[in-house]
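Subject: for your reference before the review

Hello V.,

The reviewers asked for a structural picture of the protein, and I figured it would be easier to keep everything in one thread rather than splitting it across files. Below is the amino acid sequence we used in the manuscript, unchanged from the supplementary table.
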Amino acid sequence: MSKRRGAGVLLAIALFKLVKAGLLIALGVGALSLVHDRDTAGTLRHVVAELRIDPKNRFIHGAIARLSGLDARRLAELGVGTFVYAAVFLTEGTGLLFRKRWAEYLTILVTTSFIPFEVYEMVHAPSVLKAVGIAVNTLIVGYLARVLWPGRDREK
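And here is what came back from the structure prediction:
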């Protein structure tokens, strides 16, 4: 594999991790903004309408139903938890962007740790999106493990 192609793959993985971090930050901010909201479902419906998303979409409808059923404590926990995950993804993405070897090891460790939970979720509630997530994460781990394999030549 050429050095240029390897750098492109690492850049793609880094950007993927950074986009995930950005989405998690947005989710965390959203969850925390709902903590003191008395009409969570109404607020979520308003946001969906403002974003011009189909409110009858089953995913949107399900998300609104789940989030509106959470109390303030659970919303706060959800918000803080997403910030923790976002911090991990930001660390991975930034490290990979700067081609740090520790970031490659961290990405293998973190991504591998999520795969069993993703498989469990897939078995209990199969979906194409979950299957794609498992495939992408498996490819990321496989690629990084191949790059980090002892004795392989690698650009410094």
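For the response letter, the relevant points are probably these. The chain has a mean pLDDT of 88. Residues 3-33 form the longest helix (31 residues).

Happy to draft the paragraph if you're swamped.

O.
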